[in-house]
Amino acid sequence: MAHCLLHITGLIFGGVGMVGTLAATAMPQWRVSAYVDGNIVVFESIWEGLWMDCISQLGLRLQCKLYDSVLALPPLLEAFRALMCAAVGLALLSFLAAVVGVTYSQRGPRATSALLLAAGLAFLLSGALALIPVSCTGAGIVRDFHDPAVPAPLKRELGAALYVGWGSGALLLAAGAIYCHCWC
């Protein structure tokens, strides 16, 4: 009974982490314009994401533009896109493997335990893949925000997608830990 409860908990953590990783990948709020130097009246908010930039004017009108060319992107952004897409794909595969392993855990314990171990390792890997670009982006934003050489209009703050990415990465790591613990 305790194993069944742990399997279901791991499945819930993995499913929520998978959806969160997909949401963080698609959200344009990775880097959000910062209001510094006593700038009270602001007419525009700028969002920068992996796939597009958005400008909100007075909170009434939102315009988003996809990046024109993949070749014109900075190499770091291309790498972050690839890591997040790999994390989403691996999280989806590990979630499906965990569903199959939990479903058939009563029939053949030896085969399903290997499947649950594979799902746990894949959850751990997908969580690490999701945390790398999110944490690197967050560290870059904090570094640039405190750098006096960066002009105030170019300073950015942490966006909502980073918080979603950190939470979903943690859930994926927790799901992987649960399935690896159940295998032991």
Automatic annotation (TrEMBL):
| Family matches, as InterPro entries | Claudin, Claudin_CS, PMP22/EMP/MP20/Claudin
Superkingdom, natural source: Eukaryota
Molecular functions (GO terms)? structural molecule activity
Name any one Pfam family assigned in the record.
PMP22_Claudin
Query: Which segments does the entry list as coiled coil?
Result: none
Where is it mostly found? other
Membrane topology label: Multi-pass membrane protein
A GO cellular component term found in this entry reads:
plasma membrane
Q: Which residues cross the membrane?
A: 79-102, 114-141, 161-180
Where, per UniProt, does this protein localize?
Cell junction, Tight junction; Cell membrane
- Gene3D superfamilies, alphabetized: 1.20.140.150
Q: Which UniProt keywords apply?
A: Cell junction, Cell membrane, Membrane, Tight junction, Transmembrane, Transmembrane helix
Its function, per the record, reads:
Claudins function as major constituents of the tight junction complexes that regulate the permeability of epithelia.
| Membership in a protein family | Belongs to the claudin family.
Q: Which PANTHER family match?
A: CLAUDIN (PTHR12002)
Q: What is this protein called?
A: Claudin
Instruction: Please report the organism this UniProt entry assigns to the protein.
Output: Horornis vulcanius
Taxonomic lineage of this organism?
Eukaryota, Metazoa, Chordata, Craniata, Vertebrata
